[in-house]
Amino acid sequence: MNKRPPDLAGASPLSGTYTSATLLERLQQLHPQVIDLSLGRMERLLAALGHPEEKLPPIVHVAGTNGKGSLIAFLRAIAEAMGKKAHVYTSPHLVDFHERVVLAGEGGGKPIPEADLVKCLARAEEANGGELITLFEITTAAAMVAFSEAPADLLLLETGLGGRLDATNVVEKPLLTVIMPISIDHVSFLGDTIEKIAAEKAGILKPGVPCIVGRQPPEALKVIERRAAEIGAPLHVAGRDWNVFEQHQRLVFQTESVLLDLSLPRLVGQHQVENAGAAIAAASLIFGEELTAPALEAGLANAKWPARLERLAPGALYDHVDEGTEIWLDGGHNAAGGSAVALALAEMDEKAPAPLQLIWGMMEGKEAEAFLAPFKGLIERIYTVPIPDEHNSFEPGVLVDIATQEGFEAVATDGLIEALERAQADAGDTARILICGSLYLAGHAMRYHRGSRA
């Protein structure tokens, strides 16, 4: 294994006081930001740390293209409604780096204190001994150290990218795996077909460990079923072994032996009904007869997952629009994400019509045309923005060209505030404004909204 480049080889382990921003900056100095899917580096580092991955609470390991975070939010809320304690590992973060590591506690989990995360990262840095390792890998190892030393009933573990070679896939025997809906994304790392991507996601399947499978394209399901048959992993498949749908403003979950009539989830959109269904199926296997309808009701009502078609509460962004205008935020960035949000907004418009304006920024490498296509006939105008501090984001002018070619009216702006003010002025009345296209843009919007203008 090669050492760090000479300019960083002498870097000392993390020490001192950090905010999330300065901690992330330091980690980016220490480790390559490129993605390099492999398990060898993680296995070496975890061995040097005394194998914290072998001392974790029961694990629910979650992969998929869309819906992973929402499913985890539902599962966490259900578990906490039952009085259970759940650790959570997700990525990327929206505002603060330590959001990625949530430690279980009385009254619900909370992000690990920054000082404690620094200590775990310093231990991982020292154990790594200056070898090359990615930012996600060192963070995952540090999180496993933290999780291994804090009591919990459950660890909800989200893959970072793919599954088979993802840094989280060092867990040999999880309690349960979940594969959420798969679509085209990250083609340079996972493959350019649904089948290739599904094969990577199916890499989290383990012999004898049941897997909840969210609603899939037929070609993805075939790949998952073939891998499950090869290793002996029992599948519980949406549309076959369980089903979920909305009926009369209620959520209905059904198996051969169970029929549940529940309130709709707090998270908005038909896609969240599907995500909630996968969470109910997972909770049924995790908790068995201990699971109750009141716990499910509480979980659906209390689940929080920021920037997933979230209507923003009062805050700094509303200083730039008229009273009565709605500001919504969503971090979806692929074709399936665009379809889900567009469908939810169309349903919203039927119930409460309002002129819809889109503020759009996106990272290069994403299929911008495919994300935008589902919004045809739904929005009045697009305002394109750069994503601050992200050098690999599309220039606003490039996004205008893409939108224009797709038949939209689009305007380039210098940033989020200009886009908000122009959208409001052009609407001429109360409006519905969606900020979308990237979790990085969503994080920037959230930071501003909470009062940090940096």
From TrEMBL:
<feature type="domain" description="Mur ligase central">
    <location>
        <begin position="62"/>
        <end position="283"/>
    </location>
</feature>
<keyword id="KW-0067">ATP-binding</keyword>
<dbReference type="InterPro" id="IPR036615">
    <property type="entry name" value="Mur_ligase_C_dom_sf"/>
</dbReference>
<dbReference type="InterPro" id="IPR001645">
    <property type="entry name" value="Folylpolyglutamate_synth"/>
</dbReference>
<dbReference type="InterPro" id="IPR013221">
    <property type="entry name" value="Mur_ligase_cen"/>
</dbReference>
<comment type="similarity">
    <text>Belongs to the folylpolyglutamate synthase family.</text>
</comment>
<dbReference type="InterPro" id="IPR036565">
    <property type="entry name" value="Mur-like_cat_sf"/>
</dbReference>
<keyword id="KW-0547">Nucleotide-binding</keyword>
<keyword id="KW-0460">Magnesium</keyword>
<dbReference type="Pfam" id="PF08245">
    <property type="entry name" value="Mur_ligase_M"/>
</dbReference>
<dbReference type="GO" id="GO:0016874">
    <property type="term" value="F:ligase activity"/>
</dbReference>
<protein>
    <submittedName>
        <fullName>Bifunctional folylpolyglutamate synthase/dihydrofolate synthase</fullName>
        <ecNumber>6.3.2.-</ecNumber>
    </submittedName>
</protein>
<keyword id="KW-0479">Metal-binding</keyword>
<dbReference type="InterPro" id="IPR018109">
    <property type="entry name" value="Folylpolyglutamate_synth_CS"/>
</dbReference>
<keyword id="KW-0436">Ligase</keyword>
